[in-house]
Amino acid sequence: MSQTNADTLYNWLLQQELTGDDDRRFYSSYLLGHVSLAIADTEENPQQFYERLTQGLESTLPEDKLSEKDIAGIHALLAEAPK
Description:
- This is YfcL protein.
- There is one protein chain.
- The termini are close together.
- By secondary structure, the protein is mostly helical.
- The longest helix has 20 residues, at 22-41.
- It has one domain (3-80).
- 75% of the residues lie in helices and 0% in strands.
């Protein structure tokens, strides 16, 4: 994923945060933090953005004590996102 695609994902999530229901706003906010970190971590090599984002989510979702519904919603929203 290029930096442009990462920026597109970030901007799409911002839009979802503004227009979605409470759950969608929560999922968007959660993902925005992870996307921001992945963008920062991969500035030198933007092709690794999606891999870094996936690793970040896999390592933190279990620790964040989210409900199964929230975890599924986060994954579903990310699956909807432009690639």
